[in-house]
Amino acid sequence: MSSDMIMTVRGAVAASAIKPGGILVHQRVLQKETTVVDMDIAAEDLMELREHPAEKGNLVLSNETRAYRELERLSLVQSNCVVDIHGRDERDVVRLKRMSEQLDLHILASTSLDDTTTSTDVSALAHQLVLDLQYGMDNTTIQASVIYQRTSLSPANPTILRAIAQGYVKPPPSVIPKDFIPCSICRLEFEPVVGEYFTKFEFVYCSTKCLRRHRVAGFGPVDQLQ
């Protein structure tokens, strides 16, 4: 994939397709459905959830209709791209793709490693990430766009950290687009490199040859030189 493309759950899209609102990162959009019901929290439970945020299904985000309505609001802030971060055991890339198609929204899915793994095989763990990033996740062709890893920093699992470093593939450097402008005399387009072209009044010259030609003509109307 070229450096000016972004991988989404619907496939690669041009970076220019992303609206000025940018990419909303670190969002939990939708996860696999569980036995815990994703429902509204009662007002009388809010104080308890301040102290125990993981109780009463407060962190469960499996309701597709609710997620759909929240993502609809992105259009109000000129944004059309969001990154979903869920662990390997929580993600639901099939439903993410369906929602992306329904909303015409660019969703970037994440991949990760099991943070409780006891494996010391760095290459095998890195291979899991590579498969998700380059081929597809969870028996689909939906590719991951980013690596999101939950891990304790005290102490961090060195095997997981090395696997992430090995699984990450640095993208090629971006190609800086070149803007070309036409020469007022020869009409040929050229790249305006500072110090290599000339201007006088409203005229632009690609070379000293064109500048000299116009000077000899007394800097008159350029249409008389054609």
What's the quick description here?
This protein is α/β, with parallel strands linked by helices and 226 residues long. It has helices at residues 46-51, 64-72, 93-103, 122-134, 158-167, 208-216, and strands at residues 5-8, 11-14, 23-27, 81-84, 106-111, 146-147, 181-182, 189-190, 198-200, 203-205. It folds into two domains: 5-167, Metal-dependent hydrolases (TIM Barrel, Alpha-Beta Barrel); 181-217, no CATH class.
What's the SSE blueprint?
Blueprint: E1 5-8, E2 11-14, E3 23-27, H1 46-51, H2 64-72, E4 81-84, H3 93-103, E5 106-111, H4 122-134, E6 146-147, H5 158-167, E7 181-182, E8 189-190, E9 198-200, E10 203-205, H6 208-216
Provide an overview of this structure.
InterPro entries: Metal_Hydrolase, Phosphotriesterase, VATC. Pfam families: PTE (PF02126), VATC (PF18716). Its cofactor is a divalent metal cation. The protein has 226 residues and is α/β, with parallel strands linked by helices. The protein has two domains: 163 residues, TIM Barrel (Alpha-Beta Barrel), CATH 3.20.20.140; 37 residues, no CATH class. It has six helices and ten strands, in the order βββααβαβαβαββββα. The strands form four sheets. The chain has a four-stranded parallel β-sheet. Helix 4 links the parallel strand 5 and strand 6. The model has no long low-confidence stretch (mean pLDDT 81).
